[in-house]
Amino acid sequence: MLPSRYGRHPCPASGHSSMTPTDFYTCWQQETLPLIAILRGITPADAQPAAEILVNAGFHWLEVPLNSPSALTSIRLMREVVGDSARVGAGTVLTPEQVDHVARCGGQLIVSPDGCPAVIRRTRERGLISLPGVITPTEAFSAIGAGASALKLFPAEQITPAIVKALRAVLPPHLVCLPVGGIQPDPTQMGAYRRAGADGFGLGGALYQAGMSLHDLRLRAGAFRQAWHILADA
Fold first, then answer.
1. What is the DSSP letter of 106?
2. Is the pLDDT of residue 17 over 50?
3. Are 174 and 149 in contact (CB under 8 A)?
4. Which of the residues 4, 25, 192, 234 has an alpha carbon 20 to 30 A from that of 79?
5. If you average pLDDT over residues 178-182, what whole number do you get?
6. Which residues are catalytic?
């Protein structure tokens, strides 16, 4: 487990079914690096060292998509090493049964490419954080109604900052919205989304790709951290 100097994460651990959008928004405001690391394709052999690299770089949200090799094993291994210093969960969660599998291996976060109400409801029943994917106002309000903790705006390649701004005009103000897809360690790109109302980002292939070296992951994590701090200090 990572040493105690990394501190306890501000968001409650799994088992807190009261993680409403307002609750999640409150804890997200304390986040110093509001970025979710999406580790699609990671293997159990790299799970713990990758988690250590990311937490050392300041990341507190780690996602292992379920279409990765032995994803549940990787989630369990990451949970063991990060302890209370970060939150670990699953992505590409498509069914309520998969939510149950993630909960049993210690996952704390459920991320989906869509806003399936049954998945959202099961996530909240299991006391996990629900982050469904949406692209339209109809999908967004359906997900909120089902109990989503926050929204993943996906794919961000199709959701420009102008669209984010339009969505924010009608969505509840205390609701975390995170564009995911095509985000680069570029303060200009990230800044445009932030000014439009994005609360952070999910990072996919620009941060991690299957088979990449841990050295490259460390470099990319550092680049995203630097980009965010340049943006935050602007």
1. T
2. no
3. no
4. 25
5. 98
6. 63, 152
CATH label of the domain that carries residue 60 = 3.20.20.70
Which residue in 136, 130, 70, 133 sits closest to 105, CA to CA?
70
The answer as to whether 10 is a domain residue is no
Q: How many domains does the chain have?
A: 1
Q: State how far the alpha carbon of 111 is from the alpha carbons of 38, 96, 154, 197, 211, in Å.
A: 10, 12, 11, 20, 22
Residue 128 scores a pLDDT above 90: yes
Contact 79, 88 (CB under 8 A): yes
Q: Is the pTM of this model over 0.90?
A: yes
Tokens of 32: 């110093």
Domain that holds residue 220: 30-233
Q: What is the mean pLDDT of residues 9-28?
A: 73
* Assigned domain for 41 exists: yes
**What order of strands is seen across the sheet that includes strand 61-65?**
129-131, 109-111, 87-91, 61-65, 35-38, 201-203
**Cα gap 38→47, rounded to integer Å:** 12
The verdict on residue 229 lying in a domain is yes
